[in-house]
Design brief:
This protein has 6 helices and 13 strands. It is an alpha+beta fold and 341 residues long. The protein has 2 domains: 184 residues, ph1033 like fold; 117 residues, 3-Layer(aba) Sandwich (Trna Endonuclease, Chain: A, domain 1), CATH 3.40.1350.
Length: 341
């Protein structure tokens, strides 16, 4: 499979190339204001907590907006490669082909919300280039990353401290990242341009479902171990019921709702069925929260993320306090169909 990656050109207004004239000759003779300018690629860092928040959140995983003071260096047409560092590994989270560069106020108007970072610089991807957030393990190719700076490579024993400043990377590095992660940039090279295809063996990938599943499995394992230590049998019924565990000891039966998080939790999300079940079975429902769960990279390719640790909190009994409950969505029942125009 041949993959084209645009790492050389930024699209600007430029006259057509006369027949028989090479691109190099044309670029050398054009006025600087009308030349095809080289785009830039940047390596930009997000904390692992921010990435995990995005992966485990309820919102769409497509990255349609990024913000930060360091992003002021980027211009429309440039590409920002977002990395993170956790479990002693370097990960690529996504890449953004810059379509628009906006101020905070402009971004609020453009996106229709005021709930944005207060940073002055906001970048919107070029339409059609958006990709979902995921995690690609690029630790093995980290020695090949080359920066456009006096310190051209990461030190052998690098940490996230070496990534916190946004730095320009070479076109070859951008091409390497694009091929290794399949995050190629769908913009063609100018006619006649020669692109050397880098050779990579592919990298491990963690998706949002991988992370969520790892957290869910760890939370359930901790909860079941807790009840078994108390002499209960604990059975996972989450696929068929509006709660997660049914726990029995002698003639006593309790239902447990289990929630997991990689952060220290002050709030949890509940489904309407979970709320209704807790209301109808007051005194017989327990809430188990396992937070501060640690996510680990896959030990083998294509095995998915794993999780460990976790801080256990048990709310027994769990009688829902209506004042602590807040609706975060609505369901609207449609009436008779209107006229079709």
């Amino acid at each position: 499979m041949v993959i084209e990656i645009a790492v050389w050109q930024r699209e600007v207004a430029a006259p057509p190339r006369p027949q028989g004239t090479s691109w190099a000759t044309m670029a050398a003779t054009q006025h600087p204001c009308t030349r095809v300018k080289p785009l830039k690629h940047y390596l930009y860092y997000w904390s692992s907590a921010k990435v995990m928040d995005w992966l485990t959140g309820l919102e769409d995983k497509t990255v349609n907006h990024i913000a930060g003071s360091q992003l002021a260096r980027a211009e429309p047409g440039d590409v920002v490669w977002i990395t993170t560092f956790f479990d002693a590994k370097l990960w690529l989270a996504t890449r953004v082909v810059v379509g628009e560069k906006l101020t905070h106020d402009q971004a609020c108007i453009r996106l229709g919300t005021s709930a944005l970072s207060t940073s002055h610089t906001h970048l919107i991807p070029r339409p059609g280039t958006e990709v979902d957030l995921a995690l690609w393990d690029i630790t093995d190719i980290a020695p090949q990353i080359e920066f456009v700076s006096p310190h051209r490579h990461l030190p052998p024993s690098f940490t996230y401290h070496n990534l916190r400043t946004m730095r320009a990377i070479t076109p070859d590095t951008a091409r390497l990242l694009g091929h290794a992660t399949r995050l190629w940039i769908p913009v063609p090279e100018p006619p006649g341009a020669t692109v050397t295809q880098p050779v990579t063996t592919g990298v491990g990938r963690i998706t949002a479902p991988d992370v969520k599943r790892a957290i869910e499995l760890r939370a359930m394992a901790v909860a079941m171990e807790h009840f078994r230590k108390l002499g209960f049998s604990a059975v996972d019924v989450s696929r068929n019921e509006s709660y997660d565990l049914v726990c029995r000891r002698s003639r006593k039966e309790i239902h447990a709702a289990v929630k997991g998080s990689h952060r220290a939790s002050t709030k949890i999300r509940l489904t309407p069925d979970e709320v209704e079940h807790a209301r109808q079975h007051r005194g017989h429902v327990i809430l188990v929260v396992v937070d501060e769960i640690v996510i680990h990279a896959p030990k083998r390719p294509k095995t998915g993320a794993t999780a460990s640790g976790g801080h256990l909190r048990v709310f027994d009994p769990w009688d829902i306090d209506e004042q602590r409950l807040r609706a975060v969505g609505f369901e609207y029942t449609l009436g008779p169909a209107g006229r079709t125009k």
